[in-house]
Each structure stands twice: as C-alpha cells, then as structure tokens.
Amino acid sequence: MSLVDEVRAKIRRLAPDSTTRWTDAQLNEQIHLADCLIREEGQTTWQTIDISLLDEGMYYTLPSNIIAIGSVEFSLDGVTFDDGVLEPTTYRILDDLSRTWRDDRGTQPYHYILLSAPGIYSVSKIMIWRPMADATAEAIRINCLACYPRNDAAFQAVSVPQVIQEEVYVPLVMAQLHAAIDQSVFQLYWNDYRSGMNRVRSRYGHRYAEGLGAFRSGGPTLGERYLP
Amino acid sequence: MNWGDIKTAFQNITGENPANSSYFPESRILAWANQSLRDLARETNYLEKRDILHVVAGTQEYDLPTNVDEIFRVTYDWERIRPITQIKLRAYNQRWRERSGKPRMYYLDQINQKIGLYERPDVTTSYQTLVDDTGTPLTAGSDGVYGFIIDSANAPSGRDATILIDRSSVQPIFGFDGALLNEIVGDGLEIFYSAIPEEITTNVQDIPEIPRWASPAILYGILIEAYSAETPLQDFDTVAAYSVLYRHIKNRLKVRSFARLPRAWAIRCAHEKPSWNMVPRLPQHIPPPSEGP
User: What band does A207 get if pLDDT is binned at 50, 70 and 90?
Assistant: First the structure.
C-alpha cells in the first residue's frame, strides 16, 4: 500500500468519526503538507539530477523539487560521473583569486556557487566555474535532498516504512487536523511529532556507525593500553 | 503547492469558499498570502537574484529593479566594484560627479531605488541580440517561449520551419532585456541582491517564489491572519497553533538559507593577512627583551 493510503487508514482508526469531518481528499492534502516538512527535516530522500553543460554556460536553473545539495560530480562523457567533484566556493574567494575570474573558460569546472536557496521554481540557480570553453557531452550530477512538490500521482504512489509513518506522519497530520479544532490535542500530537522526528533522524544515520573514527590517528585506545 | 492548491486547502480547513465568502474574498486571502511570502523572504533571506543593467556612456545613475531588497555584490565589466556613500565621495572630491572613466565604485540611493557609479562610465554596454536567419530579434510569446522561423530558402526540404526555444535552456548563456534574448559582450553592470518575491496573482497556476517544500508556510500564514481577523471565525487559540507550524517552517527555512553549502566543505582563504585597520597598530620595530632581575 502507498504512504497516503496507509496513513489515512491509521488516522481513520485513531478518529473513528473522522469520515464525517474530513474527506479522503482533505486527508491526502494534509498528508502531503506533512510530507513536505518531514522530507526536509528528516533528510532521508536523496536523488540525483543530471545537467548537460553548454558552451560558456555559467548559471544553470535547478529543478524545484530540490531541498538541499549534497555534492556535485562531473562527467566528461555525460554518462560516468567519475571525472571530479566540484567544491562549493563563494564570490569573495573567487574575487580574491583573480579580478578577471569571470572571463576564464576551461575544460572542466571545479567549483560551484548557489544563487538562492534551492527549490524555488525557475529562480534557484547553480553557478559553475570555470564554465566549459567547448562543451560536447560534459555534464554535472547533483546529489540532492528532494521532496514531492505536488500532491500528484507520483506522490500518491510513494511508500514509506511503517515505523516512519507511525513516528512522524501520523502525529504531524493529526496535529495539523486539530490545529483549528482543539489546541490541547494539537499540542499533544505536535510534541509526539517532535520527539518522533529525532528518532527518525537517528534511524537514518546508523547508531553504531564508525565512519572516519575507524581510521583515527593518535595513541592507543583505553583497551589497547593494557596490552603487554 | 500552487495558488490553486493553497486556496483549496484554506477552504477545506475554514469551510469558507473565497469565491463567495463575504469575510474572506480571494483578494483578502491573496493579500495575506503575499504578506506571508514577503515576511518569510525578508527574515530568512532565501531569495537571491542577479540582473544585468545596460550602462549608457555619460549616465551616472540607473534604476534598480523594483524587487531589490538588499544588494550584496556588484560587478562592472565582470569585475567586482566596491560600495561607497555619496557623503564620502563628496568629502573626497567636491566635484566628483564631473569625473568619468571606468567605474570602480558604486553607491546606492535606496529611497529613489537607484544605483550610481563612480566614476561615471564613458562607454555604453555592448551586447548582441539573438536573431533569426533574417536578422530579426527573437521575441517571447505570452507563454515565455522564444521562437523564430527559418524561411524556405534556408530550411530543410524548402519549407518554412518554426523553431521554439525554451527560455530556461538558453539562460546559462543568454540574458534577456524585456522580451529580447541577448548576450552581454562587455561593460555591463551586474547586480546580485536579496530579492522581494514576486506577488502571487489570482492565476491558480501561480507558484510562489519560495522553496517548494516550504510552501505550506504560506497557507499557515493566511490561516493565522484569518483566525485573527474580527469575524465569527476569530479564535486566538487556533492562531497560536498555526503560529507554531508557521514559525517551525520559518526556522527550517533559515537553516536552508544561511547554510546553503555543506559545513564540512567550508573553504577558507589560504592567504589571510592582517587587515588594513590592523596595520597602523603594528609596532614599527620589535623592542629588545628587557633584562631580567
């Protein structure tokens, strides 16, 4: 079953007389509102978006389903993205580097800057430097946090694990529904949602993750000190 | 969410249909929507834009776009120029307005929404306009799509062919001045600024200028105003509940706006050196160490 169907069924179970208060369409709408906030704060939905580079093209419009950018990779053939990673920079740093950086062209971009927070329809842009002097098939791949900007068929088909639905979707939708009806109930569900969000975020990041700590340098650990 | 979605959600929550409600006509909730949008943009600084103004030789001041909130960077002929005030220019030279040459500084007149250049430019911006094969500039239709016709003499199989250009696909290279697509060749005045969002109109397809994940904030902004207004719907407990949701999104938007680049990748300038105001305070020479007891 899809996220929308499952969360709606859970809400109907919590509020048996809800069919007279809210239609299915109204609940779907509230689930979509909740989904926007949960995907932003939960940071669990990552996508890749490829943009083909143009001759001397510097500013490229970003799709509006992006919430944040994680990394930007470069590909010479537009297929295999293993030819470099673009690093974020600022106009100030580029100005310090060279007064005429804006005139530079090259065979591969090394840096990017964002203009506007990502996700604004037809406004948010990424600036790459250096732009391609002569582009053939080159492209950049944006690894980004994404959302479903509309309550459409694509959103209706999405599925989410049961535990996430129960931790955050149900409390937030119930809070939204009760905001205009009973504020004590709203507060109860809102508090549930806030603590549920913390748990969801810790589930996405592995609680026993070792990461770079496994490659640490320095002295022996507490256990190692007692070795002969 | 577009304006149609927001309006429907408002109607579903309040039971008031903006098409025939006497308390909440569409014009009123639209005004509240635009008010929320401006509030979010001003407080969280999520919206930045860039424009290129065409400079005319001998003209010192230029009109700023109406949606400018705060300018944070200006370039002339693609090189950064520095901000200064008219008072400082006057203190430097009483006849500063008479000087002309390549601008190195700019000043702002925010009351009259103008930007001024010092020195006054002595050349006009050069640019080339995108034209079709007959030399006619490409113009945009009402849908924002640029198109041109290749006449039968140059088109394949001897027939007129219409070619349409999507504006967003040519924007990395071409700017646009009104309806014309053009490419600045030199001496343009480029401004970067925090912008005031464009107003939402009654067109149900209008998409507000806000990150799309944050668009529920506009709905909550409208609901706060609707439940605060002196109508039979007035209820300040409900206002408090929607304020929690509104402030939550605003705070998240601040995170996304002020921390756009991953923190772990923050780059520092490698050649940091003492700033200018530090230099006069440095000792002229290092005194010898005093003798101990």
Answer: low
3-state SS assignment for residue B162: strand
Helix (H) and strand (E) counts in chain A: 8, 7
Contacts of residue B192, Cβ cutoff 8 Å, sequence gap at least 6 = A91, A115, B48, B49, B50, B71, B72, B73, B74
Residues 99-118 (B) with a CB less than 8 A from some CB of A: none
Predicted local confidence at residue B200, as pLDDT: 95
For B41-58, the pLDDT digits (tens) are 999 989 999 888 889 999
Q: What pLDDT does A203 receive?
A: 77
Closest CA to B196 of B34, B38, B51, B71: B38
- Report yes or no: A160 and A106 within 8 Å, Cβ to Cβ: no
Would the pLDDT of B153 be above 70?
no
Backbone angles phi, psi at B82, to 5 degrees: -100, 150
Q: What is the average pLDDT across B246-270?
A: 72
Would you say residue B179 has pLDDT above 80? no
Q: Taking residues A76-90, what's their average pLDDT?
A: 92
Report whether B50 contacts A115 (CB < 8 A): yes
For A112, the enclosing helix (H) or strand (E) is strand A111-115
Cβ contact (<8 Å) for B192 and A91?
A: yes
Report angle CA A30, A166, A33 to the nearest 5 degrees.
20
In this structure, of B176-180, B202-206, B212-216, the range with the lowest mean pLDDT score is: B176-180
Is the separation of the CB atoms in B78 and B210 below 8 Å? no
Beta carbons within 8 Å of B173's beta carbon, 6+ residues apart: A54, A55, A56, A57, A58, B183
Q: Which positions 14-53 of A are in contact with B (Cβ < 8 Å)?
A: 26, 29, 33, 36-37, 39-41
Which residues are CB-neighbours of A30 under 8 A, at least 6 positions away?
Answer: A22, A173, A176, A177
Amino acid at B41: A
Contact B133, B154 (CB under 8 A): yes
Closest CA–CA distance from residue A6 to any residue of chain B (Å) = 21
- Please give the ipTM for the structure prediction: 0.87
Domain boundaries, chain B: 3-46+199-257, 48-125+186-195, 131-173
**Mutation choice for A interface testing from B37, B212, B215, B219 by most A CBs within 10 A:** B212
